[in-house]
Design goal:
Shape: globular
Radius of gyration: 23 Å
Number of strands: 25
CATH architecture of the largest domain: Sandwich
CATH topology of the largest domain: Jelly Rolls
Strand content: 25-35%
CATH class of the largest domain: Mainly Beta
Distance between the termini: 22 Å
Number of domains: 3
Structural class: alpha+beta
Helix content: 10-25%
Length: about 450
């Protein structure tokens, strides 16, 4: 199931606004590329009215509208027509919609997958190749896109409004200056343990471009010492992240009488093409939490958690005009299911992958590959539950990341710098956020049997 949400179609930083002279060149290149796909302008007319409007409305207008983060508006044909060659170029190169997850490598069944289907890309290509005609609306009225509010929660259409909203303390973020960290505490207000159905972190209003990340940890009080102690991760947010949905039958717990310890990284002036470059007053970050019913914990058989999995030992150094690679290995003393994968880095990270190594057979399986990573679009890739990777006891997660500190990296602000591991935007990081469901041997065997039975039914149906 593809889930399309308002905040998911924001324009990629620094690549959107091109002059009309460049558009003319892109138009010629796009036509040549369209011809190479095998599509022909004689294959039948493709029009905006009959074929393209729906694609644009479902995938682009959410950000390309008045007040949206996209630098131009796409709410009608007159607005779209001048940009048609650029639209074709961006969708053919899969820069738009901004969702970097490689095709043809590993698991492709994802929740919240923003990528266009190849048929949609081919339709746009043919349309531009034919001159981007509007077509005849006939008795129809040109559609007005049904767009949620810019401040709407991403899961509201599925689950309604959050059961619990936790706000950070407000802070003013100046127009210029060094990286800032804001670490307030807030009580959850829950009086009993609850299981999370879905969760989203949302910087309020125009603060989205100044909040680089916002981690949230849970703490509970030790009754013997009267001091709060770490319980575990609540969730993680980095610029552009959509949110998390927990699979059925598992519980990620918020304990009773707990508090949230925020760790908010702020970048004065903002990052990306729509950065305000001005002071953001009363900046607030919100966590929206959708909860299962109170008795759900009794039915949930397994626990899920989200953790940071590091990829290196020792110092991370990327030399000027150079490249680097890091990798990490993680195994478990019990079977697990990997529910989501989110690599993390800053401006020099270019690619990341997730693999599984099976010591019993010596086989390595590639699960996910991201080859055009962007610091302005952090995605938690949520695997569909029926294909989420299963690891038997002792199997090894292999996580790799590649860094490019050369002038060939369009996100690189200065290839002359030595880049080291650190928390500043100018530094680099090397880890991945991974949600894991912890199984037992019986539960692992049951899931394997269920998947095998489903495969046999599929084969029989053919």
């Amino acid at each position: 199931m593809r889930i399309k949400q308002c905040f998911t179609k924001k324009q990629h930083a620094g690549k959107a606004v091109l002059g009309f002279a460049v558009l003319a060149v892109l138009g010629l290149n796009a036509q040549a590329q369209a011809q190479s796909t095998g599509l022909s302008i004689d294959a039948g007319q493709v029009t905006y009215a009959d074929h393209v409007a729906e694609i644009i409305n479902e995938n682009c207008v959410v950000c390309h509208r008045e007040g949206g983060i996209g630098p131009m508006q796409f709410t009608n044909y007159e607005q779209i027509r001048p940009w048609a060659p650029l639209i074709q170029y961006k969708v053919e190169t899969r820069e738009m919609p901004p969702y970097s997850y490689d095709h043809g490598i590993g698991i492709q069944q994802l929740q919240g997958d923003w990528r266009l289907d190849q048929s949609e890309i081919d339709t746009i290509t043919a349309w531009v190749q034919q001159g981007a005609p509007e077509g005849d609306w006939g008795d129809r009225t040109p559609p007005v896109p049904d767009i949620p509010s810019l401040d709407e929660w991403n899961f509201a259409a599925q689950f309604g409004q959050p059961n619990l909203i936790l706000d950070s303390e407000s802070i003013d973020v100046p127009a210029i200056g060094n990286d800032m960290w804001h670490r307030p505490y807030v009580m959850t207000g829950l009086t009993q343990d609850r299981c999370i159905k879905a969760i989203q972190v949302k910087p309020r209003a125009n603060a989205k471009t100044v909040v680089h990340h916002a981690n949230s940890d849970l703490e509970i009080m030790n009754p013997e010492t009267g001091e709060y102690e770490d319980y575990g991760q609540l969730t993680e947010y980095a610029m552009g992240k959509w949110g998390e949905i927990m699979p059925d039958g598992v519980c990620r717990t918020i304990p009773a009488n707990s508090r949230v310890r925020w760790d908010i990284h702020l970048f004065p002036g903002g990052v990306g093409a729509t950065a305000p470059g001005a002071m953001i007053e009363d900046n607030v970050v919100e966590i929206g939490i959708w909860l299962h019913p109170e008795d759900y914990a009794e039915k949930a058989r397994f626990k899920q958690d989200l953790k940071l999995y590091g990829l290196r030992h020792g110092e991370l150094i990327v030399p000027p005009h150079g490249t680097a690679m890091t990798q990490g290995f993680h195994s478990f003393d019990h079977p697990v299911r990997v529910d989501s994968f989110q690599p993390h880095g800053h401006l020099r990270l270019r690619a990341a992958s997730l693999e599984i190594f099976y010591p019993a057979t010596g086989r390595t399986e590639q699960i996910s590959q991201i080859s055009n990573w962007s610091a302005t679009w952090h995605h938690s890739h949520l695997y569909e539950p029926d294909v989420a990777p299963l690891l038997p006891t002792g199997a090894v997660l292999v996580i790799k990341q590649w860094y490019d500190n050369t002038a060939n990296n369009p996100n690189n602000p200065d290839p002359d710098m030595w880049v080291v591991g650190g928390s500043r935007t100018a530094d680099e990081m090397s880890h991945a956020w991974i949600a894991i469901t912890h199984l037992d041997d019986e539960g692992y065997a049951e899931i394997v049997a269920q998947r095998e039975a489903a495969k046999q039914r599929s084969v029989a149906a053919e």
